Amino acid sequence: MKTGTLHFLCGKAGAGKSTLARRLAEEEAALLIVEDVWLARLYGDEMQTFDDYRVRALRLRSVVGPLVIELLRAGRPVVLDLPANTRAARAWFRSLFEAAGAPHLLHFADVPDRTCLARIAVRNRERPEGSHELSEADFAHITSFFEPPQADEGFRIRVLEP
Fold it and tell me: What are phi and psi of 92, to 5 degrees?
Protein backbone atom coordinates (compact mmCIF):
# COMPACT_ATOMS: atom_id res chain seq x y z
CA MET A 1 0.00 0.00 0.00
CA LYS A 2 1.24 3.47 -0.89
CA THR A 3 1.72 5.89 2.01
CA GLY A 4 0.84 9.56 2.01
CA THR A 5 3.45 12.30 1.99
CA LEU A 6 4.06 14.42 5.08
CA HIS A 7 4.41 18.12 4.27
CA PHE A 8 5.68 20.37 7.04
CA LEU A 9 6.91 23.94 7.24
CA CYS A 10 9.78 25.98 8.55
CA GLY A 11 9.91 29.76 8.68
CA LYS A 12 9.83 32.67 11.07
CA ALA A 13 6.58 34.10 12.38
CA GLY A 14 4.93 35.96 9.52
CA ALA A 15 6.85 34.07 6.82
CA GLY A 16 3.63 32.78 5.26
CA LYS A 17 3.63 29.22 6.58
CA SER A 18 -0.13 29.06 7.20
CA THR A 19 -0.96 30.50 3.79
CA LEU A 20 1.38 27.98 2.19
CA ALA A 21 -0.08 25.15 4.28
CA ARG A 22 -3.61 25.91 3.07
CA ARG A 23 -2.44 26.04 -0.54
CA LEU A 24 -0.52 22.76 -0.20
CA ALA A 25 -3.51 21.02 1.37
CA GLU A 26 -5.66 22.04 -1.59
CA GLU A 27 -3.06 21.10 -4.21
CA GLU A 28 -2.28 17.72 -2.62
CA ALA A 29 -5.84 16.92 -1.49
CA ALA A 30 -4.22 16.55 1.93
CA LEU A 31 -5.55 16.68 5.44
CA LEU A 32 -4.50 19.99 6.99
CA ILE A 33 -3.77 20.16 10.72
CA VAL A 34 -3.33 23.72 11.99
CA GLU A 35 -1.68 23.99 15.39
CA ASP A 36 -2.95 27.52 16.10
CA VAL A 37 -6.58 26.50 15.56
CA TRP A 38 -6.32 23.32 17.63
CA LEU A 39 -4.60 25.16 20.48
CA ALA A 40 -7.15 27.99 20.44
CA ARG A 41 -10.07 25.57 20.49
CA LEU A 42 -8.60 23.30 23.15
CA TYR A 43 -6.94 25.83 25.44
CA GLY A 44 -8.32 29.28 24.56
CA ASP A 45 -7.50 31.79 27.25
CA GLU A 46 -5.12 29.40 29.04
CA MET A 47 -2.42 30.50 26.61
CA GLN A 48 -1.21 33.87 27.82
CA THR A 49 2.57 33.51 27.55
CA PHE A 50 5.12 31.91 25.26
CA ASP A 51 5.74 29.26 27.95
CA ASP A 52 1.98 28.50 28.03
CA TYR A 53 2.18 27.92 24.28
CA ARG A 54 5.22 25.64 24.56
CA VAL A 55 3.64 23.40 27.21
CA ARG A 56 0.34 23.06 25.35
CA ALA A 57 1.99 22.63 21.95
CA LEU A 58 3.97 19.66 23.31
CA ARG A 59 0.78 18.18 24.73
CA LEU A 60 -0.94 18.63 21.37
CA ARG A 61 1.89 16.83 19.58
CA SER A 62 1.32 13.77 21.77
CA VAL A 63 -2.17 13.52 20.25
CA VAL A 64 -1.46 14.71 16.71
CA GLY A 65 1.61 12.51 16.20
CA PRO A 66 -0.11 9.10 16.32
CA LEU A 67 -2.98 10.45 14.21
CA VAL A 68 -0.57 11.65 11.51
CA ILE A 69 1.25 8.31 11.44
CA GLU A 70 -2.02 6.44 10.92
CA LEU A 71 -3.17 8.86 8.20
CA LEU A 72 0.13 8.52 6.34
CA ARG A 73 0.02 4.71 6.61
CA ALA A 74 -3.52 4.81 5.21
CA GLY A 75 -2.23 6.65 2.16
CA ARG A 76 -3.46 10.15 3.06
CA PRO A 77 -1.14 13.08 2.46
CA VAL A 78 -0.91 15.36 5.48
CA VAL A 79 0.08 19.01 5.79
CA LEU A 80 1.13 19.95 9.30
CA ASP A 81 0.92 23.66 10.01
CA LEU A 82 3.08 23.31 13.09
CA PRO A 83 6.44 25.06 13.17
CA ALA A 84 9.49 23.01 12.23
CA ASN A 85 11.68 25.89 13.32
CA THR A 86 14.33 24.13 15.40
CA ARG A 87 16.39 20.97 15.00
CA ALA A 88 14.49 19.42 17.91
CA ALA A 89 11.12 20.20 16.33
CA ARG A 90 12.26 18.78 13.00
CA ALA A 91 13.38 15.60 14.75
CA TRP A 92 9.75 15.12 15.87
CA PHE A 93 8.51 15.50 12.29
CA ARG A 94 11.15 12.96 11.20
CA SER A 95 9.86 10.51 13.82
CA LEU A 96 6.40 10.74 12.23
CA PHE A 97 7.28 10.09 8.61
CA GLU A 98 9.84 7.42 9.54
CA ALA A 99 7.32 5.59 11.78
CA ALA A 100 4.84 5.64 8.90
CA GLY A 101 7.43 4.66 6.29
CA ALA A 102 6.26 7.70 4.32
CA PRO A 103 7.93 10.27 2.11
CA HIS A 104 8.23 13.85 3.31
CA LEU A 105 8.87 17.37 2.10
CA LEU A 106 10.01 20.23 4.32
CA HIS A 107 8.87 23.58 2.93
CA PHE A 108 11.21 26.35 4.08
CA ALA A 109 9.79 29.87 3.79
CA ASP A 110 12.99 31.91 3.73
CA VAL A 111 11.61 35.42 4.21
CA PRO A 112 13.39 38.57 5.46
CA ASP A 113 12.43 39.92 8.88
CA ARG A 114 10.98 43.15 7.44
CA THR A 115 8.56 41.12 5.29
CA CYS A 116 7.59 38.95 8.25
CA LEU A 117 6.92 42.03 10.39
CA ALA A 118 4.76 43.62 7.68
CA ARG A 119 2.72 40.41 7.40
CA ILE A 120 2.39 40.19 11.18
CA ALA A 121 0.97 43.74 11.22
CA VAL A 122 -1.71 42.66 8.74
CA ARG A 123 -2.43 39.48 10.71
CA ASN A 124 -2.71 41.51 13.93
CA ARG A 125 -5.46 43.57 12.30
CA GLU A 126 -7.30 40.65 10.68
CA ARG A 127 -6.94 38.18 13.61
CA PRO A 128 -7.63 34.87 11.85
CA GLU A 129 -8.77 32.03 14.11
CA GLY A 130 -6.03 30.90 16.47
CA SER A 131 -3.74 33.85 15.82
CA HIS A 132 -2.26 35.90 18.61
CA GLU A 133 -1.21 39.51 18.37
CA LEU A 134 2.55 39.74 18.09
CA SER A 135 4.63 42.82 18.75
CA GLU A 136 8.08 43.43 17.29
CA ALA A 137 9.50 42.38 20.67
CA ASP A 138 7.48 39.13 20.53
CA PHE A 139 8.80 38.52 17.01
CA ALA A 140 12.38 39.09 18.19
CA HIS A 141 11.91 36.70 21.12
CA ILE A 142 10.38 33.95 19.00
CA THR A 143 12.96 34.45 16.25
CA SER A 144 15.78 34.00 18.77
CA PHE A 145 14.91 30.29 18.84
CA PHE A 146 14.77 29.92 15.04
CA GLU A 147 17.21 27.51 13.38
CA PRO A 148 17.02 27.25 9.60
CA PRO A 149 17.23 23.69 8.26
CA GLN A 150 20.70 22.43 7.42
CA ALA A 151 21.81 19.90 4.81
CA ASP A 152 23.22 17.57 7.49
CA GLU A 153 19.68 17.02 8.82
CA GLY A 154 18.93 15.00 5.70
CA PHE A 155 15.50 16.38 4.80
CA ARG A 156 14.05 16.83 1.36
CA ILE A 157 13.70 20.62 1.37
CA ARG A 158 11.80 22.96 -0.90
CA VAL A 159 13.01 26.52 -0.31
CA LEU A 160 10.38 29.19 -0.92
CA GLU A 161 11.57 32.75 -1.18
CA PRO A 162 9.34 35.83 -0.79
Answer: -65, -45
